[in-house]
Design a protein that fits this description.
With about 425 residues, the chain is of the alpha+beta class. It has two domains: about 1-45, no CATH class; about 50-360, DD-peptidase/beta-lactamase superfamily (Beta-lactamase), CATH 3.40.710.10. It has 13 helices and eleven strands. The chain has helices at about 1-10, 10-30, 30-45, 80-90, 105-110, 125-135, 140-150, 155-165, 190-200, 205-210, 280-295, 320-325, 330-335, and strands at about 55, 60-65, 100-105, 125, 215-220, 225-230, 245-250, 255-265, 270-275, 305, 360. The strands form three sheets. Strands 7-8-9-1-2-10 form a six-stranded antiparallel sheet, with helices on both faces. Strand 5 (about 215-220) and strand 6 (about 225-230) form a beta hairpin. Helix 2 packs antiparallel against helix 3 (about 30-45). It is globular, with a radius of gyration of 30 Å. It starts with a helix and ends in a 65-residue tail after the last strand.
Length: about 425
Amino acid sequence: MLTWYMAMTLPPICAKYTQTKFKLIAMKTKHRFTLLVAAFSTLLSSSAFALPHLSIDLDSGRVLSSKQAFDAWHPASLTKLMTAYVVFKAIDAGEITTGSPVKISRNASRQPPSRIGFGRGSVITFDNALKLLIIKSANDISVAIAESLSGSTRAFANRMNREAARLGMKGSRFVNPHGLHDKRQVTTAHDIALLVRAIHKEYPQYAYMFKAPSLMAPQRLKSGNNRQKMHFSYNLLLERFRGGDGFKTGFVCASGYNFVGAATQGGRRIAAVVFGRDGQTSRAVDAAKLITEGFQLSLSQGTPISNLKANGAVRSLPTNMRSKVCTQEARAKRYDPGAGQAVIKSAWMQKRRITQKPLRVALGGASGPTSSAIEPDRVSRVTKPVFRPIQNVTATPNTTANDNTPIRGTIVASDTSVPIPRFRP
């Protein structure tokens, strides 16, 4: 009876583990009840029990399941959802076009992986930059986008925070466009759900980028030639879950494995946000389970996200997952294959089935206007000379041609009178 109760009350992620664990304990001891209660207490106190999640119907905005949805968490590359959203807004406002240039600066080219590796000075379009940002999750492209739209990453982060405030993302703060770890950069599952819903509702024309499982991009060889290289999305729901069609993954040691996955079935689209999982596989499976359970609910069930309240104590400081996911022991235990080769054995997912050809990205081709916010280059920052009228200086009567006074007709570079320097041998 207790086993059944636990399976019904614990979050979905823990149910199967709970039933198995309790059965093993019951088989190995005569004092079943005492040890079951002890096991239950231990499970409740574990950090895994409190990992944040939230599932939402993206059309109605109803939250279907949530846990610790207002806890502060490091977003990692989920940050790039806001980077993309800012670019979408800029294109919509006419500041730039999809064909406007994104230039790879020295700063951008020096960003750590994940990156695409285009050389310094390379130029691509915003359209291609968005594909690399969303599918490849390229950090160098994130910086190039920020600099090409706002002039600097700091100015771009200010735009990110303004959009976050407008959307009601009260628990979020951005200081960079890529999500590489900075202790000041935080978000919540609730806020990410707001952002994903805004992208879904406002910019359906970019849905194909989030849905694409792969892309082809040029790679420069040591010989100087270019070849096309395949890059896979880290979103393992794509091509492995019925109706999987977005959104984004994120990982740094401090955050653990974050994920926002979405799927459409029967005309209804549901997304799941999960934070702090211990691997690519577990975050995908957890999201798949939450989405599946969401589709089993009626359209009227759930709480409007505007009315969602915290269902427990809220952590104002993000949990650092480094000791749980970035130790040598943790790396040895988890299954972390390349996204294109991953084989996930789970009742919640299916064998990969290739559904579409990769998108293609090319260098060059930028024909749109440059953002007006970009700082002028060094040459244009030089002060241009201003025309000043020529004044003739006449020698005083008591001077002679042989004295040391300046020659007549000296050009004075100012309208005001200035002492005229005397000749010095």
